[in-house]
Amino acid sequence: MDTKGKTSDVSKWVRKNILNLKPYSSARDEFKGEAEIFLDANENPYPTAFNRYPDPLQWKVKETLALVKKVKPEQIFLGNGSDEAIDLIIRAFCEPYKNAILITDPTYGMYAVSADVNAVPVIKVELTKEFDVDAEGILSAVTPECKVIFLCSPNNPTGNLLNAASIMRILDEFEGIVVIDEAYIDFTQSASFTEHLAAYNNLVVLQTFSKAWGLAGLRLGIAFASAQIITILNKIKYPYNVNVQTQQIALNVLQEVDKKDKAVAEIVEEREKLKNELLTLPITIEVYPSDANFLLVKMKDAHAVYRYLMDRKIIIRDRSRVTLCKDCVRITIGTPAENKNLIEALRAL
Question: Reduced to 3 states, what is the DSSP secondary structure of residue 332?
Fold first, then answer.
């Protein structure tokens, strides 16, 4: 086997046409600093608040985010939701009809969807009955064609953190890219895998502004990785993939970390309260441990519960057809009032 991920040159895993690709480049990519007159991009010169193209590489946001996350700006990619980063990772490292990705099952559905869109086969390895990662099973299932492993921790839809030691083993032994999706990391006491970026060139950590930061409507996702991987992702992204308003609002919320932390603390407190309330209901079979802002709940006839609540304009997620999640629904933690209304509706069932 080749050298471990920590010392590997990422370029050996990149598709050859991507390595050789000459990316689209604007004058805004090439210029550093604050310009006074913009005559490069054929914009309307008269102010409308949005008449200028955004910074294509979002440097102000990255510099501020880097301070919050304790990484380097060059280790950050910003995209139109984490889904853009997922798609670009598959496009960068996987040849259509030839290479494969590996996912755990159950997990976030967009990994497989993005692979299907890009004509990339998907290898699935089930989580354990405790919804944990099976490192031995994953490493045994890896084929020479497998280039990317996606791990979601805390996992969606199960809500639990995956075993960190098992993830580290996969990072050490897999010769390819390991993506750890930490969309829900703010709702845990666990350290982010971003602390391992310096040691592992093959590591990508996904996070998002959609959950804890409360900006789901703006669609701003984050990928942290080595500068080499970030350069590759920037090479193949759309030129102006994050709009002006999204960048400005992100800058604003990054100045209010305490506000985000307060909201997270309230959600975590409500998570425990909602869990205890759900356990008092006769229709509840089990509420699984959660490190996220939602609960996976096993119920008697979960699909019927889902339809019942929908008729009362309360929307939860039916996960009863998902692997290992028979008769389960996924319930996002709402406000205290929303959670109270949910429980009242379920008591009336």
Answer: strand
Residues 24-76: tens digit of each pLDDT:
887 777 777 777 888 888 999 999 999 999 999 999 999 999 999 999 999 99
Helices 59-69 & 244-253 angle (0-180, nearest 10): 30
Centroid of chain to Cα 175: 22
Q: Residues with Cβ < 8 Å from 171, sequence gap 6 or more? A: 5, 178, 196, 200, 202, 203
Helix, strand or coil, per DSSP, at residue 287: strand
Q: How far apart are CA 161 and CA 154, in angstroms?
A: 4
Q: CB-based contacts of 335: which residues, under 8 Å, 6+ apart? A: 270
Of the candidates 187, 97, 114, 200, the residue with the CA atom closest to the CA atom of residue 150: 114
**Helix or strand holding residue 203 (H, E):** strand 203-208
Q: List domains and CATH numbers for the chain.
A: 5-255 (3.40.640.10), 258-347 (3.90.1150.10)
248-262: pLDDT as tens digits: 999 999 999 999 999
3 state SS for 131-181: CCCCHHHHHHHCCCCEEEEEEECCCCCCCCCCCHHHHHHHHHHCCCEEEEE
Cα gap 217→125, rounded to integer Å: 32
Contact predicate 184/150, CB 8 Å: no
Which amino acid would we find at residue 58? Q
Q: Which of 129, 184, 118 is nearest to 151 (CA)?
A: 184
CA distance 349 to 343: 10
Stated pTM of the model: 0.95
Radius of gyration over alpha carbons of the chain, in Å?
22
